[in-house]
Structures are given as C-alpha cells and as structure tokens.
Design a protein that fits this description.
The chain has 137 residues and is of the alpha+beta class. The radius of gyration is 13 Å and the shape is globular. It contains 4 helices and 5 strands; from the N terminus they run αββααβαββ. A 5-stranded antiparallel sheet has the order 1-2-4-5-3, sandwiched between helices. It is 33% helix and 23% strand.
Length: 137
C-alpha cells in the first residue's frame, strides 16, 4: 500500500484510503459517474454538512451528466472551475493531505485517471447522507 501520492486509478486510491483510515465507519464513499468517468465522493460522517453536500456537490456533479463522454481532466476542470463555488476549495495530491482534510470537514472528489483530488469545505451536521442522487456505496 502506498501512503505517499495519490495514484491514477480510482479503485486503488479508495482501497488505500480505506486502509490508511483503518476502515473507520465514519468514512463514507459514494461512487458515481460524470461525463462517463468514474468518480468517488469521500467525506467523514459527522464532519460534513449533508444539506451542503447535496446542494453544492451532488447536484452540480449530476449536472455534468453522462450523455457525452469526457476526458478525466475535462471532468476535473468542470468540477474545479465551473461547479464548485462554495466555501474553501483546494486540490491535493497526497494521502496525508487528503486524510487531514477529510477529518477537517472537507468533502473530497476523486476522479479515475487523475492524480489529484478536489476538496470542498462543508463542515457541518451529523445527519446521515442516503444513497440518493445517483451515488452508491
């Protein structure tokens, strides 16, 4: 298991992240597609505001749709530059930065074939997020 930098494969990143976070039950991963590219929304239960998550993450990402196939870097550009507008935003490329940010209330968006994760600060309530809006665990 690699603890340094994120890898290009989404599945490997999520496996490594779960392992590094000792498979904590607070870690939530929601898988989906945007522009026919596999993505994963990652957050820590109780640290992330679920209303903000639905309104500021799920809805904008779902607006990308899957009618048109996009390159992974284009999906990242759309998410980073056009969709995510609320709160503090940042991009990370190491597991240490990613884990620290998730525990601090950031929601992470991992994209297959990308070496970075996009983060949005959504500190908030402890309500549980369902598997609505096209995402599943």
């Amino acid at each position: 298991m690699k603890q340094g930098n994120l890898e290009k494969k989404l599945e490997q990143n999520t496996v490594n992240l779960r392992s590094l976070m000792k498979n904590t039950s607070d870690l939530t991963m929601r898988y989906g597609k945007a522009g026919n590219v596999d993505i994963c929304i990652v957050f820590c239960e109780g640290q992330t505001d679920t209303n903000q998550l639905a309104n500021l993450i799920y809805r904008p990402i779902n607006s990308i749709g899957n009618k048109e196939s996009l390159l992974p870097e284009r999906v990242m550009e759309i998410i980073s530059g056009e969709l995510l507008t609320a709160g503090e935003q940042k991009q990370v490329n190491t597991f240490d930065e990613l884990i620290g940010s998730i525990y601090s209330g950031f929601c992470a968006i991992l994209i297959d074939d990308e070496l970075t994760a996009r983060l949005s600060c959504l500190i908030g309530d402890s309500q549980r997020v369902g598997t609505h809006i096209g995402y599943q665990t």
